[in-house]
Amino acid sequence: MAVLPIRIMGDPVLHSPASPVGEITDEIRTLVADMFETMDAAPGVGLAAPQVGVALRIYTYTYADDDGNPWRGVVINPELWMRPTEPGAPDPDDESEGCLSFPGERFPLRRSDEVLVTGIDLDGEPVRIQVDGWRARIMQHEFDHLDGILYVDRLDDGDWKTVQKIARKRGWGRPGSSWTPGVDDLEA
C-alpha cells in the first residue's frame, strides 16, 4: 500500500465529473487500499478517488461515533438521496467542515441532515447506507467530489472570497497542485 498525493483545489480532475467503475479489478482494489492509507495518514474522514487524481466514482470513509465505535467503508458508483436542507445560514460551530483538497481550513456549510447512499463494495455486493448528522455530511461531501464539486464551491460569497485569497497566498488553484500526507508541510 502507498500514501498517494492529494490534489489541491485547482487541479482539473477535482472539477470534472468522475466516470463509473465498470469492473472491480485488482487495480481498483489496490487503489482503494491506497485511498484508505492516504485518508488515514492525512488524517481525514473521507477520500474520493478524484482527490488522488483518479477520475472514478469511488470514495472511502471512516468515522468513530461518540462511543468510539468505528464506521468505515468504501462505496463504488454511489447514488445519493437526501432530505431537503433546512433553510438559513449554517451554524459556524456545528456545521463547519474542511477538505483534504483545501487543507488546513474550515468553513460553515449547510448540508442535509439525513441521506441514503447506495452503490457496491469491493466484492460487487450492494451497499445501502442511511445515516444522519456527521455521517450524512461525510457522504454528501465525498459524493460532491465525484461530481466535480468541492465544498468551497458551495460557500457563500464572503467565505468564497476568503478561499480565493488563501489559495492565491499559498499558490494553490492551478493544475498539478498536490500534497502528500506525512511528507509535505502545508503551513502557509
Automatic annotation (TrEMBL):
Free-text remark on how the cofactor is bound: Binds 1 Fe(2+) ion.
TM region positions: none
Gene Ontology MF terms: peptide deformylase activity
List of residues binding Fe cation: 99, 141, 145
PANTHER family xrefs: PEPTIDE DEFORMYLASE (PTHR10458), PEPTIDE DEFORMYLASE, MITOCHONDRIAL (PTHR10458:SF2)
Keyword terms of this UniProt record: Hydrolase, Iron, Metal-binding, Protein biosynthesis
SUPFAM superfamilies found in the cross-reference section: Peptide deformylase
Homology family: Belongs to the polypeptide deformylase family.
Organism this protein belongs to: Microbacterium helvum
Function: Removes the formyl group from the N-terminal Met of newly synthesized proteins. Requires at least a dipeptide for an efficient rate of reaction. N-terminal L-methionine is a prerequisite for activity but the enzyme has broad specificity at other positions.
Residue ranges of the region described as Disordered: 84-103
EC number: 3.5.1.88
Identification of the protein by name: Peptide deformylase
Keyword Lipoprotein: no
Cross-referenced Gene3D superfamilies: Peptide deformylase
EC class: hydrolase
List of catalytic residues: 142
Annotated catalysed reactions: N-terminal N-formyl-L-methionyl-[peptide] + H2O = N-terminal L-methionyl-[peptide] + formate
Cofactor: Fe(2+)
